[in-house]
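In the current project phase, our protein records have gained a structure token line. A sample record follows, to show the layout:
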Amino acid sequence: MNTLRSAVLSGVLAGVVTSAFAGAGEVIATITPLSDTVTYAAAATPGAPALVTYVGYEVSLANRSTNTINFVSFNVSVVATDRDETVELFNAAAPGPDPDLPSDCTQTSVSELTCIVGTMRSGGTFPASGKPFVVFYKAPVKVDGNGRADAPGTDFVQANVHVVFAEGNHDQPRSVPRNSTRDWPAKPVTLGTVNPVDVRTALPAIGGTFFTGTGGIPTGENRLAEVLAVPPRSAATSGIAAIHISKVPDTDYDEPQCGALGHFRECPIYTTTVTGTFPEAPWLTTVYRIDASNLKMAPWKILNSALLTYTNENVSSPVHVCVNNEPTSTGVPCILRSRCYKKGSPGWTPELDGDCEWTLINKRNGSLIIQ
């Protein structure tokens, strides 16, 4: 009777695998997070959109043995440290250029999927292309006050691949297949606290809208905010998106121009990172907002004289108004629209009253300082 002997895996993410016994099957599962840290999703406050962020993983299987392995299947599951927080599978129901799981995979619960691979010949992979497929989950909304993973840095999303396979009876009627099971855990993904200046998420090909502050609206306490709109991209493209906002006070001697221009109490520095390839159109769009409490002169004066500087790879460039509603050929962003909100103006709300914003379109990453 043919007997299946399982290889023992040590250090999956480091790629270190012990040798299989002679004649054994050796299926290697790899599951790698796209981002080691993801911001919590946030429930919508009255009148504001909810922040939706994603946890993403690259998943693949490989038969590293010299034998054919039969009846291969696997299950991918995820849980948060705080079990009251729901991590929901995103791929299967999402519209867009790459909405579905591989055809051999089906969603089996809110947070699980199962893939039926079947026979894997020596050197075979799943997917057959050898390129991992990417699975996305909606990050959970943080649950506070239940005594589990409430402190910063204590809450994680843990994904696991559970593989089942059998040698099969190889035309020997009295040979009984023996299943082999193996768990392959991913590196835990840290869930960051919801805060007004940092957002980090895995990024599906469908794109998404991400923001700091409360629905991308600054307040008197958090006077700077950004809204990042990533358009749908190639189905083969996925990655991460990140926003970070820092401040240059007008008394900072390293940035004397901030104080000299006299526009703001704090000059914002917005750093935006989006991996992958951007389409030609629609463009990557960023909206930079500054609360009225941060202005040191009349809004219309600021619109006419504020200085926007874009930095990428240590090269600084002034940002100008768009020509024909397109970014420059060099990739420097341009200003599609700038405005300050006053009562009766388009888009005005009480929360935006007196705030100023600049809408830029772009096709690469970088930092923007507004002075």
